[in-house]
Every structure is written in structure tokens, then in C-alpha cells.
UniProtKB/TrEMBL annotation:
This is Uncharacterized protein. It comes from the Bacteria. The lineage of its organism: Bacteria, Bacillati, Bacillota, Clostridia, Eubacteriales.
Length: 76
């Protein structure tokens, strides 16, 4: 899968696919992907998650960066 850099989110509001992904249950796929954390320039293991939006499954990778702070990559 190709990964596109998303955003660093601090307020639990991140709209992807027309919805706030924090309003949905994240499903941990049990997989990780080694991507660059642009906040410190170090490559790290991001957990791959999916959410189901109106019958469509969307995939993203995320890593926690502190209290209520997440860095996202979006699967393409």
C-alpha cells in the first residue's frame, strides 16, 4: 500500500472521507508500517487501522505522539 502523509492532530478532530475519524471505532489490523515521523525525522512503526464508513472500509496508519496527539498517514 502507498502511504500519503496526513496531519499531526491535537484536538481529536480530523476529517477524512467526509467524517471525523475520532467519531468511529478504530480497528487495529495487527499490522504496522515503518514510516517517517516528520516531527522528529525518525522512522517509526505506525499501527495500521481501519474504520467503516457507511459500508466502506478506509485504512490509515497512526502513532500517538502524546496526550490526545496523533500523527496520521492515509492509505492509498
Amino acid at each position: 500500500m502507498n502511504w500519503k502523509l496526513g496531519k499531526l492532530i491535537k484536538n481529536k478532530t480530523y476529517k477524512l472521507w467526509g467524517v471525523n475519524i475520532f467519531d468511529y471505532q478504530w480497528t487495529d489490523t495487527g499490522e504496522t508500517v515503518h514510516l517517517k515521523d516528520y516531527t522528529d525525522g525518525i522512522r517509526k512503526d505506525f499501527t495500521i487501522y481501519t474504520i467503516d464508513v457507511e459500508g466502506t472500509t478506509h485504512t490509515f496508519a497512526a502513532i500517538g505522539r502524546g496526550l490526545n496527539t496523533w500523527l496520521f498517514y492515509v492509505g492509498e
